[in-house]
Amino acid sequence: MVIGRRWWVSSLTVMLLFSVLTVVAQQPALALTELPPGGTFTDDDETLEEGHIEAIFEAGITKGCNPPANDRFCADRAVTRGEMATFLVRALKLPRATEPDHFTDDDGSVHRNSIDSLFEAGVTKGCGAAEDATFCPDREVTRGEMAAFLARGFGYPVAETDFFGDDDDSIFNNDINRIATAGITRGCGADAYCPRAPMIRAHMAVFLSRALQLTPNTPPPKPRVTGQFTTYYTAGQSRVINIHKIADATDGAVVQPGATFSLNARVGQRTRAKGYVAAGAIIGGKIVCCDSYVNIGGGTSQFATTLYNAIFFAGVADVYHKPHSIYFSRYPMGREATLGWTGPDVKFRNNTDYPITIDTSHTRSSVTVKLIGSNGGRRVSAYRSGSATTRGGGSVTVTRVIRYRDGTRSTERWYHRYNPLQ
Predict the structure, then answer these.
(1) Fewer C-beta neighbours within 10 Å, C or N terminus of the chain?
(2) End-to-end CA distance of the chain, in Å?
(3) How far apart, in whole angstroms, are the C-alpha atoms of residue 92 and residue 398?
């Protein structure tokens, strides 16, 4: 029970803060642990904060958010004041409280001991008037409060620069400037800190990692499907044999970072000796079968189109593709590719930092291509203008917008004119 006896805390606080600053200053640089793909937690993969989250995990500051498994970090969840007390006690290596139970509202909290330690170190005074003796352990920490916790806990000096324009009326204004001066925060946007916004666990990890001068440890990404596409056909046609043949020949291809993949180079010429058969092909502006050598492997352009769309949506570099001269309604208008020997071809460059594996599969009526790797969190949007028909032809412009994890984007456009069917 809190009686109100706190006269002795000031001298104890001075000693604790001195020892805390000494611990932080003397913290040795730890060798980075070699992490498995995806790292410790399953829900922070390829986020900007992942390296900092791993750093505070290795430092013993966090164990996860879903005991007993603790395979998640809950990066987007707001931090409670009780949780923050425990994080700070671990980060600052504070001793157990000498006289526990400084607050009246934390008796049932698993963070009670940490809250008392934080109080005796002078890092918190509670959440209300002194006579109320409350800490509000279940309340979300605001970004302003986080600044105060860190400024007190790490003893940052008074700042001379006002960094942000949205905290002038905040009681935490000076604390915010103190942690900005120390390089702990860069704000939440242009000239803003967002002092009243909840502090999420991912940003908390970054703040603590910087405060402790930890080295971010970003794990290699877990391979995942970055681009995928399926096209459909009528089962039992001779062209389906060719589609299955070329899909099987492409399956398992690995494209290293910086390398260029060529479909023709991978599968070679389509011949009867390899099991390809004659099927319809565009010859002289008409769909004909089956007296020309061009007909051997007819239909493989459907696989080329499927591969091209997987490439398109993976956000990797398109080196070469050429749409059909005639529009076929089974393909996305303008976003398709034909194939011939020795050309046209389908080529892409792996402009990511990790290998890409091409995974193919097929059924009696469909073929699917997946590109498996890591594209750094790229998000792709597709747009089309114009139109075409098989008999009348037409013109189409396809646009690909790639949004990158750092907020930048790139835009590419391809124009194609379809000829009328003769």
Answers:
(1) N
(2) 93
(3) 55
